[in-house]
Amino acid sequence: MQTTLKVEGMTCGHCEKAVKGALEELEGVEKVEVHLDSGNVEVSHSGVREDKMKEAIEEQGYDVV
Question: Which intervals hold domain HMA (predicted)?
Answer without folding.
Answer: 1-65
